[in-house]
């Protein structure tokens, strides 16, 4: 069993809602939604029924068409089919992969109003227009996003529940971890980068620290994503494939903005916009938008046509980068484990930071301005986050970086709106030149 933080959030919803709303778990495929839904049902309710709409029999689908107007009969047939006794206010009904059958989602409004049971939905690709175009989205639906395991959850999977509280303490106090402990945590963090946070990959790895088994699990997930593209992006699937396959190449460049010219000389954003949106809404990627004028706020000045496209799971990026080669030919495993990254492979560090920042934010932002005439105006900041009413620039650096000229210029240019400034790198906590330096594994605490 993998311990997940979302479990406690579901318990909190159950106690607070008391049947007034259903809960929708939204997440990428294979992120663990079905597993956590059933674990929650098993431990928190007297009985439960899980309806998997990915393979629901015709008899069950027929209930939603012909018997949903008579809920007494609806529940009686449901209980009989699954040989499960339903108890008023003590049973949970799970609509698993509900995007496969939108009619069931629309019925949530009436099921919640009936008040007999609790309802939990899981969905991947749930935001795609194709999966909601013919239904009225129920207002009685709470939403929670589910992501790959974060670093703390990865440590739990490795049997370590003692280290992360100390990481949190040192982050809050801005105190160094100490050389020996920092070295140990960075070693664990490198494993996390390579394995990623997809449950199947983590479970494959922890049984003997087997990177090859993890890589095989990740290849299955990537193939499943490709099947989803073919099925749900019908009509423009070739464009989605082109954008998706181009991600490693784009991230390996110094400036990681997605250059459409790599897809063809005539490529324009308007013709590929739906492809970027599809990958983002499927939660396969984490899109990062250029905030062109932080003076007026990062969300207000976001330029949706200029974006960076990170993989939502860095472990998947490791495998996706060498998708056409065997595991034994994947140089990234050796480079990460032995701390021998070259400048192009540094894409993994920026991707893992994007992944960790996204766990606490609905959107990611960066700042980029090119000015060949006036170098003082030429700046590139990896990420911008908000802290209260202030903006905090975040730069991702290697441990041996020599300067932070863009960060210095940005702090000077936008001094009136800037609070803290951060550099995330491979070394220990340090404050220098009024810039807070943090080890990469603290990124999810920002």
TrEMBL record:
Domain DUF4143 positions: 227-399
The source's superkingdom equals: Bacteria
- A Pfam family that the UniProt record links to this protein: DUF4143
InterPro entries in the cross-refs = AAA_14 (IPR041682), DUF4143 (IPR025420), P-loop_NTPase (IPR027417)
N-terminal signal peptide: none
List each copy of the AAA domain by range.
22-155
| Name of the protein this chain belongs to | AAA family ATPase
């Amino acid at each position: 069993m993998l311990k997940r933080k979302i479990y406690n959030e579901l318990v909190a919803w159950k106690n607070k809602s008391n049947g007034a709303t259903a809960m929708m778990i939204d997440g990428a495929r294979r992120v663990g939604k079905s597993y956590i839904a059933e674990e929650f049902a098993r431990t928190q309710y007297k009985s439960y029924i899980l309806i998997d709409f990915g393979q629901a029999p015709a008899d069950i689908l027929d209930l939603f068409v012909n018997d949903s107007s008579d809920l007494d009969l609806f529940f009686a047939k449901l209980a009989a089919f699954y040989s499960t006794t339903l108890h008023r206010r003590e049973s949970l009904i799970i609509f698993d992969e509900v995007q496969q059958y939108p009619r069931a989602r629309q019925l949530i409004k009436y099921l919640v109003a009936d008040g007999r049971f609790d309802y939990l939905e899981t969905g991947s690709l749930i935001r795609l227009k194709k999966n909601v175009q013919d239904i009225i989205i129920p207002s009685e639906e709470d939403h929670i996003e589910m992501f790959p395991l974060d670093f703390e959850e990865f440590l739990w999977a490795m049997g370590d529940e003692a280290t992360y509280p100390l990481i949190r303490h040192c982050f809050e106090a801005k105190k160094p971890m100490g050389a020996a402990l920092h070295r140990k945590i960075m070693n664990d963090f490198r494993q996390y980068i390579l394995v990623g946070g997809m449950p199947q990959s983590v479970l494959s790895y922890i049984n003997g620290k087997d990177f090859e088994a993890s890589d095989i699990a990740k290849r299955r997930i990537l193939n499943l994503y490709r099947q989803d593209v073919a099925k749900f992006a019908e009509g423009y699937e070739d464009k989605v494939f082109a954008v998706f396959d181009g991600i490693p190449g784009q991230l390996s460049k110094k400036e990681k903005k997605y250059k459409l010219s790599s897809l063809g000389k005539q490529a324009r954003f308007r013709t590929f916009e739906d492809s970027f949106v599809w990958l983002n809404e499927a939660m396969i990627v984490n899109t990062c938008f250029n905030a062109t004028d932080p003076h007026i706020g990062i969300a207000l000045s976001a330029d949706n046509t200029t974006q960076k496209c990170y993989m939502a799971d860095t472990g998947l990026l490791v495998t996706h980068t060498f998708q056409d080669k065997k595991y034994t030919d994947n140089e990234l495993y050796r480079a990460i484990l032995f701390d021998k990254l070259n400048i192009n492979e540094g894409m993994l560090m920026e991707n893992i930071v994007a992944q960790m920042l996204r766990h606490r934010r609905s959107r990611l932002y960066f700042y980029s301005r090119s000015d060949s005439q006036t170098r003082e105006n030429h700046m590139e900041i990896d990420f911008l986050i908000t802290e209260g009413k202030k903006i905090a620039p975040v730069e991702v650096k290697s441990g041996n970086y020599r300067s932070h000229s863009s960060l210095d210029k940005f702090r000077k240019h936008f001094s009136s709106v800037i609070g803290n400034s951060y550099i995330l790198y491979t070394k220990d906590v340090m404050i220098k030149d009024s810039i807070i330096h943090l080890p990469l594994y603290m990124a999810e605490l920002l």
